[in-house]
Amino acid sequence: MRKKLPILASASLAFSSSAFAEEASSFAQTIADFSSSVDGFFNDYTGWFVGLIFKSVPVGEANFPLIVGWLLLAAFIFTLYFGFVQFKRAGMAIDIVKGKYTDPNSKEEGEVSHFQALTTALSGTVGLGNIAGVGVALAIGGPGATFWMILCGLLGMASKFCECTLGVKYRTILPSGVVSGGPMYYLSRGLSEKGLGGLGKVLAIGFALMCILATLGAGNMFQANQAHAMLTYAFDVPSEYGVMTGIILAALVFSVIVGGMPSIASVTERIVPWMAALYVAMAVIVIVVNIGQVGSAFAAIFEGAFTGAGVAGGFIGALIQGLKRATFSNEAGVGSAAIAHSAVKTKEPITEGLVSLLEPFVDTVVICTMTALVITIAGLNVAPYDGSSLTGVTLTAASFTETAGIFKYLLALAVIMFAFSTMISWSYYGLKAWTYLFGESKTIELLFKVIFCVFVIIGATIQFGAVIDFSDAALFAMSIFNIIGLYFLMPVVKKELGSFVARIKSGEIKTYK
Fold first, then answer.
1. Is residue 207 part of a domain?
2. What is the annotated signal peptide range for this record (predicted)?
3. What are the residue ranges of helices labelled H in 186-313?
4. What distances in angstroms separate CA 89 from CA 86, 204, 264, 359, 410, one per listed residue?
5. Pairing mode, strands 179-180 and 172-173
6. Model's pTM, two decimal places?
7. What is the DSSP letter of 512?
């Protein structure tokens, strides 16, 4: 009888595993059926909105999205209006992050440090756009797209400076010490000061609605979906186990976001530097191993930027792809980062504006350029893209593994870390938009956090098209409401900058480190 027990135990274990797999598969199918219905709804009824936001005009052989032009024009105007602040004040921005202008004995209002605010905002932008987005740009626009990505990132620094200064200036600090800020507040309050209260409320409500939709889609479902896809790609995790990936991710996300901004910031300040270091280290290894090809890679980037021979759309194709992917990656002008930066501990709004201008530099100028160099050195991006060659994350992954097979697994780890950090940051953006519309209370906040985590599970389980198209459109619709307000309020920012610099020169503002 004793000899049969192991057999019975094995049979019982096999039965349990089989039953669990069936239950998981059934649950995944239920979610997939529901999500397919939702996706069908969005496909039938929101296509007009997606088409409107991503309306394109033909330029040469390529199509140029007007929303990209809207963001790029704003970045160019802010760069000129603020006197190239991203170049003149970059050193000061670094000093602020290091605490040079922070009195260690003062108790300033806010929830997080300058560094924590920066890493939280960076975790919302440094992510799959740097991996998959650059792969798309080079597959279609060739190496020359890299030059235009860098240019767009440099100009976008001025947009971040403007919106994040306003985010701190017009924020709300509750009696509990919790901070609520971002475009919703500076659009309504800032424009009200100028006698445009009605317009300000309309812009603020429109921004908040689009922010919630973008949070649940681009900042949540898409991230979870790509995280599970990379687990399947690198570690052969069955695709039908997406529900398990989703549950684990949702549990991890909830454990962080339930603690609010201080909890999110404490995680991002640890994850983001390591996450960025891991990715940049892999890129540096590829570059060093292939050091003999770096010169020709840079030559291809600069030559392709202005000639684009053999590239889809030529020079125009490279320019458009570079501008599109940089804009989609760093979110300068979208207004999302201003929500995170509003929570900083400071009484000088301009200090956080200066800190924030470092974001597009790290995100686009450094990390996107590293990715582009790896792809160009590997030589796998054979333009023009014919629909069957490598693109997106597969092109990036294949380019890294050309140097070392282990990068396949390290890249998967990076993608998962990117996805997780993006989700926790965007949960905060969505929460602040949610509480702006429905009020500040623990119950309202908890409801949103639960909804957010449910969408993590849905995103990891299914494949979808129209839902993510709509959420992407919502993300960039945020910039329409935001930038209209920035044009009205940029004189406020200029006044803050002039005052701060003058007080430093006079010695009124002291240095501490």
1. yes
2. 1-21
3. 191-193, 197-216, 222-235, 242-257, 260-289, 294-306
4. 6, 30, 28, 14, 36
5. antiparallel
6. 0.85
7. -
